[in-house]
Automatic annotation (TrEMBL):
Main location: other
Keywords: Lipid droplet
Highest taxon above the source species: Eukaryota
Keyword Transcription: no
Pfam hit, one: Perilipin
The name this protein goes by in its record: Perilipin
Subcellular location: Lipid droplet
Gene Ontology biological process terms in this record: lipid storage; positive regulation of triglyceride storage
GO cellular component entries: cytosol; lipid droplet
């Protein structure tokens, strides 16, 4: 009398209990926790192995470093939000890892053939980064400081524009008001003269 739905629920419940127990045991023992995301240092190490420096320089900029940290944190929070999400994302990570391992012989051959163009692109990007860092030193500042300075700059620009408009058109408003007062006095004078 076991229908497939009931046996599936029991299997899912059992695997969930085992996963929870393993998680608690690994936390108590201080061993590797399977739910925490793996670091992305393998990509950086592979890029550095091929002498590509632009990726390291880009990731070292505070804006990119904070953005990647925020993305990693969001991924970790999402993955830790529920055990089923952790299982799904863990399976997806394993699938991507297996796909990369399967494709690595082909991609290694392609990378070896394209090594010279990659180095030229890397050099061009590094020259561009040097130019940007020279012309805009604020790129090396933390993002919150960049935001504050941009906000202050925009506020100063709009304040000066408002002051300019006030100086240009404030006098005109007073002249128009004076003209309306003068028009009223002229009309009163005309009435006096005609009566």
């Amino acid at each position: 009398m076991t229908d497939p739905e009931t046996s599936r629920e029991v299997n899912l419940r059992t695997s969930s209990i085992v996963r929870i127990a393993y998680h608690q045991l690994s936390v108590m023992c201080g061993t590797h926790d399977p739910i925490t995301p793996t670091s992305v240092s393998n990509d950086t190490a592979d890029a550095n192995a091929r002498n590509i420096t632009c990726t390291g320089r880009l990731l070292a900029l505070p804006v990119f470093a904070s953005a990647s940290a925020a993305l990693c944190n969001a991924y970790a929070v999402t993955k830790n939000s529920h055990e089923s999400v952790a299982a799904i994302l863990g399976s997806a990570e394993d699938g991507v890892r297996a796909g990369l391992e399967f494709a690595s012989p082909v991609t290694d051959k392609i990378a070896n053939v394209l090594e010279t163009p990659f180095k030229a692109i890397d050099n061009a990007v590094c020259v561009g980064l040097d130019f940007v860092e020279e012309k805009m030193p604020s790129v090396k500042l933390p993002p919150d400081q960049i935001y504050a300075s941009m906000k202050d700059g925009l506020r100063n620009m709009f304040t000066s524009a408002l002051e300019t408009f006030r100086l240009l058109f404030g006098g005109t408003k007073n002249q128009i008001e004076d003209l309306s007062v003068t028009k009223q006095t002229v009309q009163e004078e005309i009435r006096k003269v005609s009566s």
